[in-house]
From TrEMBL:
Protein name as annotated: O-GlcNAc transferase C-terminal domain-containing protein
Keywords linked to the UniProt accession: Glycosyltransferase, Repeat, TPR repeat, Transferase
Repeat keyword on record: yes
O-GlcNAc transferase C-terminal domain location: 45-198
Source taxon at top rank: Bacteria
Record has Glycosyltransferase as a keyword: yes
Species of provenance: Sabulicella glaciei
Pathway(s) the chain acts in: Protein modification; protein glycosylation
Amino acid sequence: MQDLQLLATIEPYAEGEGDAAILAGHARSLHRRFATAGARRHRSRETEGRTRMSILSPGLGRHPVGWLTLAGLERLPEEGFDLIVCSQRGFEDPLDRRFRALAAEWRDVPAGLTDHDLAEWLRARDLDLLLEMGGHGEGGRVSCLRHRPAPVAVKWVGAQSATTGVPGVAWMLTDARETPAGFEPHYTEQLLRLPDGYVCYTPPPYARPPSRPCRP
């Protein structure tokens, strides 16, 4: 399976080798292999008015994933969500500390932890929803979602150049520019398109104020 995961990571950047049909073919092959890996069903629970949501990512800090997701997560209503964060970075920075401030529970995931054991830890958190933000890219652990540690798993940002091909990832959060209409056959996930944009940029403190958009 590692060969297919590697192809899914690097082929989007290979000229003539990274079109949607080729990437979808790799993903379907991954899907078939993962589907035979003994996926275990989650157990359901009553939410009691709060949503328990896990974030799984190697980029929660000064990283493209951090810059493109923090603002959205900071605007979640505090009274409605408990955030269970699994980070694979292993070091802190100013953006990392802002993510930590949001977490009801934080875990730094050891590099050697197996997909099965990570999924079991997540399942024990009694989740309603899981956001995966790493894909098959460096440090990504999307493959653990074949064990279905949460009732609903959503792919968002982080190596989002193509479908994951992982059973158990039900949705991909996107928009009409990132994934235009008609691309659905190239995805094993259902595409959940936001109306304006699928990311929420947090500028660094030294950034200048945005200027007015240029008009044609």
